[in-house]
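Example pasted here:
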Amino acid sequence: MSQPSEHTRLEKLLLEAARVFNSTLDYEVLIENVLRLVLTAADCEVALIFRVDHERTDMKIRYMKADVGRVATYRREIGQGVLDWVAQYREPILINDAPNDPRVEHENADRMQVEIRSLISVPLIAKGHMIGVVEAFNKNDGGFTEADLDTLVGLNNQIAVAIDNAHLYRMAQREALEKDLLYEVGKKLSGSLELDELLQVIMHSLKRVVDYDAGGVFLLNPEENEVDSRYAEGYDFAVDPHLQLKVGQGLIGHVARDGQPVIVPDVSKDDRYHNSRPETHSEIVVPMMLDDRIIGVLNLESDHLDSFGKHDLLLIEAFASQAAVSVERARNHTRLLQGKKIEEQLNIAREIQRSFLPIQDPKTTDYDVAGRNVSSGQVGGDYYGFIRIVDGQTGVAIADVSGKGIPAALIMASYRASLIAEIRNNYSIRTICEKVNRLMCESIKPGNFVTAVYGVLDSVNHVLTYANCGHNLPFVLRASGEVVYLREGGPVMGVDPAGIYREQPVYLQVGDVVVWYTDGVTEVFDADGVEFGLERLIEVVREHRDRESTEIEEAIYRTVRRYAGPTHMFDDLTMIVIKRLA
């Protein structure tokens, strides 16, 4: 009569498991429910669960004691114990003489403050993949039986599927939160030029997705060869009221010098750590880069060991990228406000513009790509840039802001910051343009706008996918002599927040030449007031198409300068030439 009774009990447990597991997708609540179910199903003193995390080299163990009823955690390195064996070989184990069994790691018992007499360890397998291990310790009435083992094995599938689903749900929620947060931070950063306010926004926003106990933004002071704490929280300022490190000193100074992020699972084992906070056990430091130039670092510290992983690094790098652009913009704005002479202000603004332009042209297989900006001597709103997406794909951008002077330069800085932030968050060109447009509508005054073209050159598949946002008409001069105009896109940016944009692929053939330009190239007038125009530009390219991209740009520039009348006031001339070689 015992067998039907065991079957009935298992069926009741499976029904209870289905009810409990279907009641929530909250990961931590589910783990607590699983541990309570294991305590009941195995009639034991302690239940333990471990989920495989392929991004870490250690194990995060969650357990619950029946007499306490709360989830507790600890971490340990992967070893050779029962838990590790079951995780590796996917086979359950029943041990009723744990004190004399060499496979049992009694260090874990010390961590849980329990003496292990007996145990069952069962692998959790979902969709054919090993996702974790469940263990039960110390049967309340004697030793564990094969029936207890069968019970936990029978619950295995439901537990594994429930945990897998809850983990996926948690990751989806986290990803959605991170994207929304990056978008939200991008809006705030693009609308403010107050440095301290910007840094506070960055740190408070980062706290919502990365758990840290202390952190700060440290800016590079190249004149003093120091890294200054500009904004920090979680530190005892009575001990260290203004933390300053020489470049190369401490983890912060090390990253400020080398420009490479650092994750330290245990700061006590890293000689570079500068002990300004005794509670810190782990740390992550990420450089703030602007056009391959280090302007500072983001530093986060935790009271727990090994708190930061690869996912945290990717997210913090996205914040650091936004922070770098905004900090530089805010710094330059502060310098402008402090300047007393107009010429000094114009010189600073010109430096801002110059720093936004690429230092060198991209090296792309089978393509000759070149960009050029010839300044008129005044502060304007032209911009072009090349952004690495992934291997074989390069983002290409050109833009022009309405108006001139410092206001136009600041709007262009806001546009560039928004564009780079959205490129890191999205692959869809249409989505990038729509989000940047909304940010421009929120951050610039009515009457101002930005014309732009953004695209991605796929040098592997020889496709240029673009969106023209009300900009001067780019064109492709085919090897056959045909001219293809790049019209597809949408309205100018910064006017209608509901603007809709479309993207269009153009397949490039050997010998094709693509030309993007601003109005400073075509809107040049001779002595009689006749415009240089698009058709003359195409003829210049056609005449010099067999030359390198930089030579084509030089030919355009020389022709435009010769065409202009003696009284013509030159605007900035900005061009991008892309030529497929093979």
About this structure: The mean pLDDT is 82.
